[in-house]
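Office hours follow-up: a student asked to see two folded examples consecutively, so here they are.
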Amino acid sequence: MVASILMVGACIAISQRQIWRPSTFIVAGLVLTGSVALMVGGFAGLSHVPTERLGGLSLTLLLAILGNILSLPLAVLLALGRTSDLPFIRTVCTGFIEIIRGVPLITVLFMASFMFPLFMPSGTNPDVLLRVAAGIILFSAAYQAEVIRGGINSVPKGQIEAAQALGMGYWLIQTRIVLPQAFRVVVPPLVNSFIAIFKDTSLVTIVSMYELFGSLRLALGDPEWRAFYIEGFIFVALIYWVFCSAMSSYARGLERDFAVARR
């Protein structure tokens, strides 16, 4: 419970744009790291919990945060690569995006959990939580990259040509002119991707990791809890609704702020 509260608090702090500072993101990262440490234990008298035994709301939040935050920088690079004038980079990024988007998330999780260790050196077996998180990050990045690419293509070419005429380099053009305008356009579909990943974390049950919904199904296997299955499903649905509605409300606020800035 404490870990879940810390993760939610870190996300709320990051969402407050008026306090955005480098120190804000550093502190939020430390809080998220501390949340993971509390979940795993093994210090200060806390018993060690193997990652395969983690579960509940804290696991759902952890996978959703990692899948949405860490995938965004990768998605930006993939989107820039797919719109690049360099054929090799464009081909590699396009191939990655199309391959990942061409399979369901459940297949990516299965490959990350069961197939990936087979390609590792003998005796090397990365933690299952890391493998699952990496699969979600790659899957989310592929979808977000296409959303961001749409925003990049919406920026008028005349602005890019004007920046080039002024002698601005590629990365300066992208970071100061193209990407700020692109992100204003893609806020709604990008938040849809965030919400989808938050809900899709329920698929990790296929690799025997019991997040929020998986924990409910596990509890309903107990005869003492089986009679309360309706209440359990309603409670879990309410939690999903609260978090998804909060993300949607935040996105609408960003849209209003961006509309005022454009006017």
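And the second, which I mentioned at the end of office hours:
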Amino acid sequence: MKYNRIFLSTLLVIILLTGIASAAKPVVTADRTYFDINTGLYVLNGNVYIEVSNRVITAGQAKVNPASLEVWASGGISVKQRDIYFTGDSVHVYGTKDQARIDGGVNLSRNGLSISADGVDFNWRTRVAVFGGNVRVTEAGTNWSADSVRYNVDSNCFL
């Protein structure tokens, strides 16, 4: 009886840990993939799709470092999380820092708001996007421009 309880308790812990580990497991697909043993990076080409938790990155090509959770992607990228949708030419995601740098014709679109710029730094922890270079904002039918704009995606306001 004592051994049955220990066995069942151990089995329950293993099942719970397996469920937790699989929940955090990223989904990565591409037309062509290989692991470069010299750099330690996964190289992805063609219709790249990377999903981690509720964040999705699409691109023409990408390199992924599984140790640092960094992603370098280019070729018409998009970065999406719930109603936040960024597009641009390239992205560098610093996975362990929850930060991303998107460059080249960046656009953010979400309910009634559109922001375009040369680049943006986005922090998933603070939920602040810092747009720089030729920033153009369209909000509720009003257009304006600036050199730099800080925008909090949670409070939907400019800082």
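Two things to take away from it. Residues 2-23 form the longest helix (22 residues). The chain has one helix and eleven strands.
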